[in-house]
Design brief:
Structural class: alpha+beta
Radius of gyration: 15 Å
Shape: globular
Order of helices and strands: EHHHHEEEHEHEE
CATH class of one domain: Alpha Beta
Largest sheet: 7 strands, mixed
Distance between the termini: 27 Å
């Protein structure tokens, strides 16, 4: 398995993974049908968000002939770490977060407070809740900050 910088030709697959995860994990929290199933679409997301140079330069994919997951790095912040739901539970998320931490010096991230599954995953990989919170833009839900205990 190879983790590498994303390329333009990867963006539709990255968008697909992001959108499926968003619908599975966040629709039960936000209950916003218009956003999840109307506004959030693969082609527009790939073309208008991911294709922007500053975003594309921050994306990394796990590619073994098929892109199975990705993450976004913003300096030392790990963001948007997602694995295709069909391939979850196979260690792909672990490989992605370990790469972000060890190769790119990722040392913190934000997770939706109600996404306890994600928070548990991050805690298993050496992240601790800091107690810091902020409101997720455009919602009434909170993001919580986690810092790595393994970087230093």
């Amino acid at each position: 398995m190879c983790i590498r910088k994303a390329r333009v030709e990867d963006l539709s697959r990255v968008a697909e993974i992001y959108i499926f995860n968003n619908r599975i994990n966040y629709f039960p929290i936000f209950h916003d049908e218009y956003f999840s199933f109307g506004e959030l679409q693969v082609i527009p997301f790939a073309e208008h968000y991911l294709r922007r140079e500053e975003v594309l330069n921050q994306l990394y994919v796990l590619d073994d002939g098929l892109i199975r997951g990705f993450f976004q790095m913003q300096e030392t912040e790990i963001g948007k770490l997602y694995v295709d739901p069909f391939f979850q539970g196979q260690g792909i998320g672990s490989k992605l977060i370990e790469y972000a931490m060890n190769k790119l010096h990722g040392d913190h991230l934000w997770a939706l407070e109600k996404n306890t599954r994600a928070i548990s995953f991050y805690q298993k990989h050496g992240f601790l809740l800091t107690g810091e919170k902020k409101v997720e833009e455009g919602t009434t839900e909170y993001l919580v900050k986690l810092n790595s205990t393994l970087t230093g």
